[in-house]
Amino acid sequence: MTNGRQDRRYLWLGPGAAWLILLMLFAVSLGSAYLPLGAGNLAVNLGIAAVMLAVLAAVLMDLRNSVALVRIVAAAGLFWIIIMFALTFSDFLTRHY
Amino acid sequence: MTDAALPFVPPLDIWRGSYLDEGHTIASWLTTTDHKRIAILYALSITVFFFIGGVAIGLVRLELISPTGLFLTSDEYNRLFTIHGIIMVWFFLVPSIPATLGNFLLPMMIGAPDVAFPRLNLLSWYLYVGGAAFTVYVLLSGGVDTGWTFYPPFSSEYSHSNVIPAAVGVFIVGFSSIATGVNFLATIHMLRAPGMTWLRLPLFVWSMYTVSVVMVLATPVLAMSLLLIVAERFFGLPIFDPSAGGDPILFQHLFWFYSHPAVYIMILPAMGVVSEVFACFARRRVFGYAFMVFAMLMIAVVGFMVWGHHMFVAGQSPVADLIFSFLSFIVAVPSAIKVFNWTATLYRGHIGFEAPMIYALGFLGLFTIGGLTGLFLASVPIDIATTDTYFVVAHFHTIMVGGTVSAFMAGIHYWWPKVTGKLYNEFWAQFAAITMFLGFNVTFLPQFVMGWLGMPRRYHYYPDVFQIWHVLSSGGALILAAAYLMPLVYLTWSLFYGQDAGANPWRSTGLEWQTPSPPPKTNFVRPPRVDADPYEYHDFGRTEETGGEARARPQGEAT
Ligand SMILES: [Cu+2]
After folding, report:
1. Is B307:B259 a contact under the CB 8 Å cutoff?
2. A87 and B323: CB-CB below 8 Å?
């Protein structure tokens, strides 16, 4: 067991930093929308979203300190999202109207 | 039947009072964290909602006796079938088996004293009550008319009924599913008794495991899609409005991403229940145990990939139609495996026709009909012809009522002696079981016929040619109502005047039966030890022709 001081550091410091990083990424995402990148805008936005997701999973969901089973559960969640998107896009990307 | 000769019935001298004696005040029930008492809280609440939903559809069936209606305005008619759907799906069927039988039995079957998170378990019931309160508010303040599916743009823009409170109620009750699912997953992973390996889990436990996976992964998407409806209706965020770049079909994708797996949330637990009942009353080991487990896992996974079969006429692309149609045929395979394995379990068994078995046999026949008509609907051309007809209505009621409700009744009767320590009147229970099967068929076979002939669902007025089918169906609903009311009477009667059941009246091998009935607060007097596979009733069917009792070996020892 750690002492209370370390507990508090652990509880606040990581998520605090993660929150600041997320806010920063949000600002970058917003700012990049005003740059004339054409199709590049989408790529940049999705890239930023991926980084946000990684920060969320590693720090706020605390997967960096989790046991294997918890990581498998999180991976299953991601896999299910992929199913949802892949099959939904099987509709949206093949419509001709 | 005698239970004296069996070595695994616990002696009565270790009896130290049951979970029912741990406090008799209302407060002791409302603050309990005992999974068995929470199961009973759930059972009482869903029974109330079952009868509210039943009255709603009873009025609809009465109205439909005449092609031009009898006593309802079309607006009232729409609100009645909507509230029937919302209540029956989310406030009865989804919690039915997991939250009552699952809550009560899951820890006992794996030899645990409680679920992994007892307080979360109680919270899940309060969330149910919270969601239910919104639904009651909707009911009292005039209802909602969107149909249980909340499709935009009607729900987001045009409906003048209480869409937001109805959506919020369903949103909240979803979290009670999620809480139950998380709890069961943790319980099965962490709290199995020594010797209870994964492939020794009773199939009911496997069904709870798979259904929990589905609940945890699907329900958040329902919550999200309902929030988006609220966002559009209340805040004007045009997510599903095509005139502002939205897409109404997106809602259907999100909604059915939950709501098709929700069918499996209803049917997987039913499969678990009847597996226990068939084994016990045929005195047979379940045929192909490992196949039964993998079939359920496959249903849980592939069940997530078929939702588009609800959208063949919604404007989905033909390519997507093809993909979803193919996957829907695939998901029928594991269900078929289960039906064949149940049949093989019965083959050469010592079949007894006690009430739970009659209900379970009813399940087997009706689930097969429901499943096979599902294959009709998985085929794009047939589905296009029958979309929004009574054929679809009859199909899914055959799965949900003929399947899930039959199995739920089987489970209630099978485990009633365990839960209450009393025996119900066997004659009336058998009578109710047979009445339910007949009532079901009289209600829904005419719906298959008129649906095939083109009678659209949700219509208030209809052409005269369909009247005979509607009258038949309404008559069947009356029989069905009687079959649902009978158990209320004889089960309640048994609480006061029923014979004491003894620990194991069915001479079942399950761990939950190797402890007194009703069980003590900690489920077992001593921590159980498991040393056998489940269902060691009879290896070779009716061999030897001894005419005596088949051999049965309990899964473990707990007293
Ligand atoms: Cu479906």
Report:
1. yes
2. yes
| Interface touch A69/B189, C-beta < 8 Å | yes
User: Which chain A residues have a beta carbon less than 8 Å from that of B217?
Assistant: 76-77, 80
Closest Cα partner for B62 from B484, B479, B478, B485? B478
Do A91 and B318 count as a contact with CB atoms less than 8 A apart?
A: no
Q: Encoding tokens for residue B137?
A: 């508010």
Domain ranges in chain B? 24-552
Phi, psi of B556 (to 5 degrees): -170, -175
Helix%, strand%, coil% for chain B, nearest 5? 70, 0, 30
What confidence category does residue B525 fall into, taking pLDDT thresholds of 50, 70 and 90? confident
Query: What is the torsional sign of CA B386, B391, B396, B398?
Result: negative
Burial class (CB in 10 A: 0-12, 13-18, 19+), B533: middle
The percent of chain A in helix, strand and coil, each rounded to the nearest 5, is: 80, 0, 20
pLDDT in tens, B21-63: 888 899 999 999 999 999 999 999 999 999 999 999 999 999 9
CB contact under 8 A, A90 and B249: no
CB neighbour list of residue B159: distance below 8 Å, 6 or more residues apart: B144, B145, B146
Q: Residue with structure tokens 């298959």?
A: B448
- Side chain identity at residue B272, one-letter code: G
Cα B226 to Cα A88, B308, B343, distances in angstroms: 18, 18, 41
Q: What is the pLDDT of residues B527-554, one digit of tens each?
A: 888 988 899 886 554 444 444 455 677 8
B24-552 has which fold?
Answer: Cytochrome C Oxidase; Chain A (1.20.210)
For B547: left if phi > 0, alpha if psi spans -120 to 50, otherwise beta; the answer is left
pLDDT at B394 > cutoff 80 = yes
The identity of residue B16, as a single letter, is R
CA gap A45, A13 in Å, rounded = 27
Q: How many CB pairs under 8 A join A and B?
A: 42
For residue A87, the chain B residues in CB contact (below 8 A) are 305, 307-308, 320, 323-324
> Does residue A10 have a pLDDT over 80?
no
How many CA within 13 A on the CB side of residue B225?
A: 25
Residue for token pair 């079309």: B74
Report how far residue B83's alpha carbon sits from residue B81's, in angstroms, rounded to the nearest whole number: 6
How far apart, in whole angstroms, are the C-alpha atoms of residue A28 and residue B141?
47
Q: Report the candidate in B259, B286, B284 with the shortest Cα–Cα distance to residue B272.
A: B286
Please list, in sequence order, all residues whose beta carbon lies within 8 angstroms of the beta carbon of residue B353, skipping any fewer than 6 positions away.
B281, B430
Q: With contact defined as beta carbons under 8 Å apart, do B402 and B362 qualify?
A: yes
CA of B250, closest CA in chain A: separation in Å?
Answer: 8
Query: How far, in Å, CA of B49 to CA of B139, rounded?
Result: 12
Q: Where are the domains of chain A?
A: 1-63, 66-97
Q: Which residue has the tokens 């020794």?
A: B200
- Say if CB B370 and CB B398 are below 8 A apart: yes
B411 burial via Cβ count (<10 Å: 0-12, 13-18, 19+):
buried
Q: What is the mean pLDDT of residues B323-350?
A: 94
The per-residue b/e assignment along B505-515, b for 16 or more CB within 10 angstroms, e otherwise, is bbbbbbbbbbb
Judge whether B305 is closer than 8 Å to chain A, CB to CB: yes
pTM: 0.91
B319 contact residues in A (CB cutoff 8 A): 90-91, 94
- Chain A: residue whose CA lies nearest to B319: A94
